[in-house]
Amino acid sequence: MSENIAQWLAEVRSLQQQISSLQHEREQAYQSAENWRRLYESEAQQRRRDVAASGQKIDELKAAIARSQGSQPRQTSEQIDQRSHLASQPSDASSHQSIESLPVETLRSQLIATQAQCDQLKRSLQSEEKAHAQTRESLTAALGDTVDLLAKERLAAMQPPRSES
Questions:
Q1: Radius of gyration over every alpha carbon of the chain, rounded to an integer in angstroms
Q2: 86: Cβ–Cβ under 8 A, 6 or more apart, which residues?
Q3: Looking at the 3D structure of the chain, how many domains does it have?
Q4: Can you tell me the distance from the alpha carbon of 93 to that of 99, in angstroms, rounded to the nearest whole number?
Q5: Least buried of 4, 95, 121, 153, by fewest C-beta within 10 Å?
Q6: Position 32 in a domain
Q7: How much is the pTM?
Q8: Given this model, what pLDDT does residue 24 score?
Q9: Which H, E and C letters describe 29-81, residue by residue?
């Protein structure tokens, strides 16, 4: 009789260890899923900032075109090239001033180039969003499968061993 009790106690300890191990694995899976979610969110935020910056640049160029339409005299191609180079530098107060002094033709060409870049960034963002959605779905499915397997293993581990009579 005491052998039976000792055997049952050993079985209970073994099951407790298995439960602890499975709980630890589950926590690791949750942490991994949370890490992937954070990575996805930071990537999405960066893409949103890129799109917003492109949109702002387009708005600035449209405003500059509207302000300077018809008010600028014709300039030589050398002056246009020099000003185009200035306008392509990072946005600050001096580049805003240089945009305002550019001829309409140059601003239009820059606007077209910026709109093309914006469209390309939007397409890139959309494909990135699709890839992230697929990754999220795959990870969610894998996590669900893992949780199901853990639950099945837990149930199987809790079943008393069949004794052959």
A1: 32
A2: 95, 98
A3: 1
A4: 10
A5: 4
A6: yes
A7: 0.36
A8: 92
A9: HHHHHHHHHHHHHHHHHHHHHHHHHHHHHHHHHHHHHHHHCCCCCCCCHHHHH
Alpha-carbon dihedral of residues 144, 148, 153, 158, nearest 10 degrees? 130
Question: Who contacts 153 (Cβ-Cβ below 8 Å, separation ≥6)?
Answer: 18, 22
Q: What is the residue-level pLDDT of the chain in tens, covering all 165 positions?
A: 778 888 889 999 999 999 999 999 989 988 888 888 888 888 888 888 888 888 888 888 888 888 877 554 444 445 445 554 444 444 455 556 666 777 788 878 888 888 888 888 888 888 888 888 888 888 888 888 888 888 888 888 777 666 554
- Domain of residue 99: give its range: 2-141
Report the amino acid identity of residue 95: S
Is 151 contained in some domain? no
Separation of alpha carbons 141 and 133, rounded Å: 12
Which residue is it, tokens 């530098």?
Answer: 89
Q: How far is CA 165 from CA 7, 10, 72, 98, 158, in A?
A: 17, 21, 103, 94, 21
Q: Is residue 94 part of a domain?
A: yes
